Amino acid sequence: MYYYMEGIAPAGRAGEEMNVKTWTVPDLIDLEFFLSRDGEQDDASVVKRDRRIYLLAVEPRIPPGTASEGSFRRWAIRLWLEERRKLYRQQQGRDAALPGDVFAESRSVLAAIIGLAGLIAGAGVALPLLVYTGREPVNVSVYLGVLVFLQIIGLLMMARFFFLKTSLSAARKYSLVYTVLSRLLEKTAARLARSAMNTASGKKREDLSMLSGTVRSMYATYGHVLFWPIFSLVQLFSVMFNVGAIGVTLIRVMTADLAFGWQSTLQMSPESVHTLVRVMAAPWSWLLGGYAYPNLEQIEGSRIVLKEGIATLATSSLVSWWPFLVAAVAFYGLLPRLVLLGIALAGKRKALARLDFSHASCDRLVMRMQVPTLSTQGLQGSPGLSDMVRAKPETSAEPFPRRYVDAAVLISEDIYRRCDKGELERRLKALLGWGFAYLFPIAGETGEDKSSLDDAVKNHSSDGGGVVLIQEAWQPPIVEIIHVIRELRKRGGDDMKIAVLLVGKPDEKTIFTPVKAVDKDVWSRVLAGLGDPHLRVVAVEE
Fold first, then answer.
1. Which among 53, 196, 302, 532 could disulfide-bond with 261, CB atoms 3.0 to 4.6 Å apart, if both were Cys?
2. Which of the 8 DSSP states describes residue 456?
3. Where are the alpha helices (DSSP H) in 175-321?
4. Higher model confidence: residue 381 or residue 342?
5. Where is 101: in which H helix or E strand?
6. CA 440, CA 449: separation in Å to the nearest integer?
7. What is the number of structural domains in the chain?
8. Is the model's pLDDT at 504 over the cut of 80?
9. Is 202 exposed, middle or buried (0-12, 13-18, 19+ CB in 10 A)?
10. Do both 515 and 432 map to the same domain?
11. For residue 124, what pLDDT is reported?
């Protein structure tokens, strides 16, 4: 029996058209954009759409033998994203720009600006160091100090990143440059947010708080990925800085009659200088031979003594330094930055490959794709979709694996004794796909609930379990409940799964009564402001 559905292209074989397991930063931005949009739409329509996408465009392209949930998620969510992009462009027009497209274009423009700025900066720093008036030679010591030794110090300071967790938070903690930039951006954003909130209505203020939480959530989820694009831009600036410095040096050497000499307030002998430059030139001496560095005679002949001038210095000695200077900048400045740029690109690919898409928004998406529908009738008139294709009938078996999560449940003392554990277990399975382990009563005060919070986290966070907090949705989210959620996160770590299960006003039969849409919306917006990527909000509905 065949059914028809609009908007979803026929599925091809696994691996066709693209490598769906390959993710990019623009992909992540588009994914969060669509997940955020889905959170504002009618749940029933979203579930139907995502289940159809799974049956028609995802399931047929999942490769055989996909045994792990992590591997499945990378395939399934990537394929879902491609279908959502197609539907979005069908609805908004072929030329509709997605946030990922805007980011990619902006990043290209920014990279060009940063590269040009680095080129100009390198040329601007090197040019004053190469001024020669005929009276006093270009000081080799100053040139090396500014363009070589300072860069070596910067590279040594940057090396500490390779012993730390590469994330934006680590960069902010251990790097002055990243700290200054991030603090400047934060202060600017906070000032704009305060200005907007002061003039906004209550509903608009909630929207701004929710947007701020969404940004923080993405920062927490993808911080180890977003570190690398910023790191690569820093290296791009440094690469172009060295290219500018080398380029200006070569142009000045070819277009002007330059003389190079050395001097220092330190009492250094020509022999000591010769030893230093010979050691520095060891990496390229095999390539340049006798031009790799000045010999002892040339070093002695280019020493500047201010009271004697340069009249007595030999021309061959004064021009012998420039190949060494160019090679030193190339090897100690340009080459390490090229290596770091390559490491940044490889690090970004590795970080993207490690993504497991286990945060709350992706959990909800996987749940929507898993939910079996009772009927496939009535698909022909689906609004907002096009391109009729054949669909196969619904099946009850789930072809992909799921990681089992057992939950410790925290519930208010007022309704603790009225909670039916059998019904609770069914609700957890239906709404979250989780199992039920323990039930703990709480008073809603972190001080009084310390033992319950410790027991709930200690028994489950270490082996991948989660914690569920049951709340009556008709009561607004108070500060104490927010504190409880933050304490759970503090005790359980950044990756522990936390869910808030909303129920309506309990009646004589059950505490699991339906939640009003407006109440769920209030809770969702307030908790979204926490910016916690592993926090879910679900509700008992009609």
1. 302
2. H
3. 176-198, 202-255, 270-280, 285-288, 296-301, 315-318
4. 342
5. helix 99-129
6. 10
7. 3
8. yes
9. exposed
10. yes
11. 95
Q: Which helix (H) or strand (E) holds 400?
A: none
Place of tokens 């090229």: 338
Same domain, 288 and 410: no
Residues 6+ apart with CB under 8 A from 300: 270, 317
Residues 339 and 381 grouped into a single domain: no
Q: Which residue has the higher pLDDT, 288 or 486?
A: 486
Strands 466-472 and 435-442, bridge-based pairing: unpaired
Domain shared by 67 and 149, yes or no:
no
Q: Which of 62-71, 82-91, 329-338, 476-485 has the lowest mean pLDDT?
A: 62-71
The pLDDT value given to residue 18: 46
Helices (H), strands (E): how many in the chain?
21, 9
Secondary structure (3-state) at 473: coil
Q: How far apart are CA 9 and CA 85, in angstroms?
A: 12
On the 0-12 / 13-18 / 19+ scale of CB atoms within 10 A, 293 is buried
Residues with Cβ < 8 Å from 371, sequence gap 6 or more? 47, 51
Give phi and psi for 27, each to the nearest 5.
-60, -45
8-state DSSP, 541: -
Other C-beta atoms lying within 10 Å of the C-beta of residue 483: 15
Mean pLDDT, the chain, whole residue set = 76
pLDDT digits (tens, 9 = 90+) for 355-395: 888 888 888 888 888 776 544 343 344 443 334 333 444 44
> Integer distance in angstroms from the first to the last C-alpha of the chain?
31
Residue 5's pLDDT is what? Answer: 41
Give tens-digit pLDDT for 274-305. Answer: 899 899 999 998 888 878 888 888 888 777 76
Q: Please determine, for residue 84, whether its predicted confidence score (pLDDT) is greater than 70.
A: yes
pLDDT at 325: 92
Q: Which of 274, 283, 375 is nearest to 329 (CA)?
A: 283
Residue 116 has pLDDT above 90, yes or no: yes
Q: Same structural domain for residues 258 and 148? A: yes
Q: How far apart are the C-alpha atoms of 212 and 398, rounded to whole Å?
A: 36
Distances (CA, A) of 403 to 72, 83, 395, 434: 11, 25, 21, 9
In a domain, 524, yes or no: yes
Q: Is 365 inside any structural domain?
A: no
- Kindly state whether residue 210 falls inside one of the protein's structural domains: yes
The angle formed by the CA atoms of residues 218, 223 and 229, to the nearest 5 degrees, is 110
Asked if residue 97 lies in contact with residue 265, where contact means CB atoms within 8 angstroms, the answer is no
Q: What is the pLDDT of residues 264-278, one digit of tens each?
A: 666 678 888 889 989
Range of the domain at 91: 3-96+372-391
Length of the chain counted residue by residue: 542
Does one domain contain both 73 and 216? no
Same domain, yes or no: 172 and 281:
yes
Residue 412 backbone dihedrals phi, psi, to 5 degrees: -60, 145
Question: Which strand (E) or helix (H) includes residue 92?
Answer: helix 69-92
Instruction: Retrieve residue 351's tokens.
Output: 């970080």
Strand partners, 468: 409, 499
Distance of CA 327 to CAs 126, 275, 277, Å? 14, 17, 11
Given phi > 0 = left and psi -120 to 50 = alpha, else beta, which region is 65?
Answer: left
Sign of CA dihedral 460, 466, 472, 475: positive
